[in-house]
Structure formats: C-alpha cells, structure tokens
C-alpha cells in the first residue's frame, strides 16, 4: 500500500508540473544539494580540523577546551537551522484523504503520510547531518543506538514543538510579536554595549571556557552532542535509549492521531462573513477589487507570520552588519536586505494573486465591468503598499546611510530591484497558482509555494550581488544598464496589461472550474 500511495502522489505531482514549475524544481534540487554539501562539509571541518598538524602548528591557541567550545556552538547553530527549516507539511493532505472513499485504511494512511513527511528532503538532510556529526565523535560503539534514537527524538520534538508554536502564534499573535521584538532589540542593545567596551567587559564578566562549555552542554545542541562525546556505562546508555524510544513512540503516536483526525474531519475553508472597519478602509483607498484582495491576504494567519519574519530578519542582521563599518559585506548585504523588504511584501500579494477567493472569479467573469479592468485594478492596487514602503526605505537609506552610495545610485538600484521582482511575481501568479486552503495538523499551506520562495531568496541575493556589489569606476555603466532595463520592463508591463486576462484564461480559469466542481 505504501508503494501505491507514493506512486499516486508522484503521478499527481507530475500531472500538475508545468515548464515553469519544472524550472523551479530543478533550481530547488540544486539548492538542496548545495545545502547538503555545505552542512556535511562544515560538520567534517569542525570535528576534524584540530587533528590536522598544520592547524596545530599555525593555531597553537586551539586547545581541547576551545575546540569543544567550537563544536558546541556549531551543534547549537545546526539545531537552530534544523528547527527553522524542518518541514511540518504533510504531502497532499486534501488529495490523499480522498483515498478513504476507496477503502484505504485510515490507520495505515495516517502512518504513511507521517512517514512520507519524515522523508521530506530538508528533513533527511538535517537528520543525516546530525548522524554524521555525532557518529564521528562517539567514544564507544555502544553509543550508536543511543545517537540514532536521540536524532529521531530531536526530529519528533522539533516537529511537534514547531507545529504547536505556529498554533500559539496564530492565536496570540500580538503578544508573541511584542515579546519577540522586545527580546531581539534587547539583544541588539546588549551586543552594541559589549562592542563599545569589548575588552573591559570580556575581562570583567566573561567566565572561563570550561564554565561556558558546561552551560552549553545543557542546550539542545549540547545535549545531542553529549550522547556521542559523554562518558557513561552500558546501564546509563540502555536507560537513555529506552527513555528516548518511549518518547519517540508517544510523540509519533500523537502525530498519527492528529493526522487521522485531520483526514476524518478536515478544517473547512474559513469564510469571512463579518466585515470589519479594515474592509471598508481598504475598499475606499485601494478600490473594490484590490481592497477585497488585501483584506483576504492580511486576514490569513500564515501571512501574519510572514510579516513577522519580514520585520525580524532586517531588525536582527542590519544592526549587526552596521557594526562592521564600511566593509565589503556590509556595503553589499545591508542594501540587499533593505531592498528585499518591499519585495517580500510584494510576494505576499503578487505571487498568488488568484488563490484566495478563487471561485469568485467565475462570477467576476460575468460582471458588467470588463474583467480586464478588474484584474488591472487588482494588480495596480497590489503594488501600492509595497511601492510606498519601497520609497520610504529608499529615502531612509539616503538620509541615514549615505555610505551606501549617492542618491541616484540608491534610487536606480532599488527601483531596478523592485521592477524585476514585479515581473517575476507576475509570472509566478499565473504559472504557480496555488489555492489557499486549510488542513488539520498541517498548520496552513504556505500561500507562496516553497519552490517560489526558494526562487525568490536565490534571486534576491543573486540580484543583490549584481546590483549592490562595489564595482568602482564601472558603476556608471551598471547604472545605465539598470536604467535601460527599468524602462524596458515598465513599457512591457504598461503596453501588455491585457496579458493579465489572456494568462488568466489560459492558466487559471480551468483550475478554478475543476476546483468548483469538487
């Protein structure tokens, strides 16, 4: 049955695959290979570099305690990355539940879906990296079963905690946001204070390396590493293994029950019956079509998490980069992150323009107002807020960060950044349409596909390097090229706005008809 389930999911995936999606899948695979090689390579270097005689000769200060500190820091960084990128999505939850009507046993289906989720490429990469990192440090062969059990328990706990954390954020969004911002800005202020009086504070307050290592062993990464590097007898190893096995069984049992509940009682798409003041405000200032669309976008819980992420990443990294002064990395990464803020907001609106009230478009086609006018109003309304934020950020860069370049350089570079992604997201909205839906124990299906998100992140940093990297005397030529491309893209969008209707009829309409009949 598992083989049949995998075949059905794979067939459904191939049937939905377009040329554009194939390109995204290939890029996503390259990204996964790059991530896997970097994680494994970093783990090998961290564990083995102190055994290299060249390192011992050139870096005599790397003692056993310092090397242990480095490995503990790496273990905790790896755990944070693992927590951030663990995929909590089940595969085609709504499609697979249709198998119940054909007599597929629900117990097996819920178990197989969790198993398929465990073998998501990102989950496999991080779990395998943990195994390599820990097994290279084991002190005794009897620790191998313990290490394997702990890695499985770590994945199960992250999966469960992350899912419930997302649920808490959905219900207590304002409290979580305020607490996170308070913690982050407090940390930034502490870093700023330490950086101003680094030697004095380190000499006075920094404890010894042994004490720091002792504390780090009680962190998630430290506990994982202790199972490989610690010293304990067979009885302790058996107790740890048994306790981990029991927790793994209980957590996965909970996962299976939640999945079974979701299969039997799926959460229906929530309709917004009560219009609040935001509805009227958005409709008044952005128009009926764009205002209604923005209301659906900002009412969705997942998008509020996206807004939190968009706010937190620059708030954390830009102050740290400013501490580097006028270095090459700060001159490149700061303007890239600032330009990415309106681009991320633009992605929330444009990358899936038709997935919210998708079935309503069957009625919109019959309105006396031309359908082309409706789509133009939606498109122009979508870019208003990101465009406003774009110009506010650009003006702030010119006033407060003049070291990033002249007025012309900043405006041309940021405008080029914005119009390029406007074109990218316009294509994505037609070629990677995704219905907005809800399902139990899956939090929310991302409104923007992970593959589109990958493409966006790859292009942000790739384009950021091409646009913002210092090139000296060649800067004037780059400005002329970007200016010409801005004009060309603007003319293309202005003259070919009727492509909105053609592309909708060709790529979206038949999908909406199929969904309406389900």
From TrEMBL:
It comes from the Bacteria. The keyword S-adenosyl-L-methionine does not apply. The chain crosses the membrane at residues 20-49, 69-91, 111-136, 142-161, 173-194, 232-252, 305-322, 328-351, 379-400, 412-433, 454-471, 477-494. It comes from Fodinibius salipaludis. This is Uncharacterized protein. Keywords: Membrane, Transmembrane, Transmembrane helix. Signal peptide: none annotated. The keyword Methyltransferase does not apply.
């Amino acid at each position: 049955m598992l083989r049949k389930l995998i075949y059905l999911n794979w067939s459904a995936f191939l049937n939905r695959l377009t040329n554009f999606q194939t390109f995204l899948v290939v890029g996503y695979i390259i990204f996964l290979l790059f991530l896997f090689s970097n994680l494994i390579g970093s783990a090998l270097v961290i564990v083995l570099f102190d055994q290299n005689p060249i390192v011992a000769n050139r870096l005599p200060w790397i003692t056993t305690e310092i090397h242990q500190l480095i490995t503990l820091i790496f273990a905790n960084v790896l755990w944070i990355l693992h927590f951030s990128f663990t995929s909590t999505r089940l595969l085609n939850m709504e499609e697979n539940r249709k198998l119940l009507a054909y007599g597929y046993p629900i117990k097996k289906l819920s178990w197989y879906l969790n198993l398929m989720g465990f073998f998501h490429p990102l989950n496999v990469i991080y779990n395998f990296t943990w195994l390599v990192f820990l097994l290279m440090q084991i002190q005794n062969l009897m620790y191998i079963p313990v290490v394997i059990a702990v890695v499985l328990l770590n994945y199960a706990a992250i999966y469960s905690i992350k899912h419930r954390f997302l649920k808490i954020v959905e219900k207590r969004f304002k409290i979580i946001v305020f607490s996170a911002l308070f913690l982050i800005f407090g940390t930034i202020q502490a870093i700023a204070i330490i950086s101003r009086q680094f030697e004095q504070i380190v000499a006075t307050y920094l404890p010894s390396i042994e004490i720091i290592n002792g504390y780090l062993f009680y962190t998630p990464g430290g506990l994982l590493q202790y199972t490989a590097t610690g010293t304990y007898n067979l009885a302790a190893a058996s107790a740890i293994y048994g306790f981990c096995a029991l927790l793994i069984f209980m957590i996965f049992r909970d996962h299976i029950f939640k999945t079974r509940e979701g299969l039997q009682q799926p959460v229906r798409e929530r309709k917004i019956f009560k219009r609040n003041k935001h509805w009227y405000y958005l409709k008044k200032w952005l128009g009926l079509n764009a205002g209604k669309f923005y209301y659906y976008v900002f009412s969705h819980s997942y998008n509020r998490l996206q807004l939190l992420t968009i706010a937190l990443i620059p708030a954390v990294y830009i102050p740290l980069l400013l501490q580097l002064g006028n270095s090459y990395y700060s001159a490149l990464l700061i303007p890239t992150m600032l330009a990415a803020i309106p681009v991320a907001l633009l992605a929330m609106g444009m990358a899936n323009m038709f997935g919210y009230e998708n079935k309503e478009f069957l009625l919109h086609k019959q309105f006396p107002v031309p359908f082309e006018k409706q789509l133009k109003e939606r498109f122009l309304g979508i870019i208003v807020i990101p465009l406003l934020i774009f110009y506010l950020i650009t003006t702030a860069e010119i006033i407060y960060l003049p070291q990033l370049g002249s007025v012309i350089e900043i405006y041309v570079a940021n405008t080029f950044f914005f119009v390029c992604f406007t074109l990218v997201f316009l294509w994505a909205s037609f070629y990677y349409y995704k219905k907005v839906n809800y399902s139990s124990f899956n939090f929310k299906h991302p409104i923007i596909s992970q593959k589109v998100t990958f493409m966006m992140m790859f292009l942000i940093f790739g384009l950021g390097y091409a646009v913002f990297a210092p090139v000296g005397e060649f800067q004037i030529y780059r400005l002329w090229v970007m200016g010409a491309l801005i004009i060309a893209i603007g003319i293309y969008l202005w003259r070919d706005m009727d492509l909105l209707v053609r592309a909708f009829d060709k790529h979206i309409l038949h999908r909406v008809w199929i969904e309406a009949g389900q």
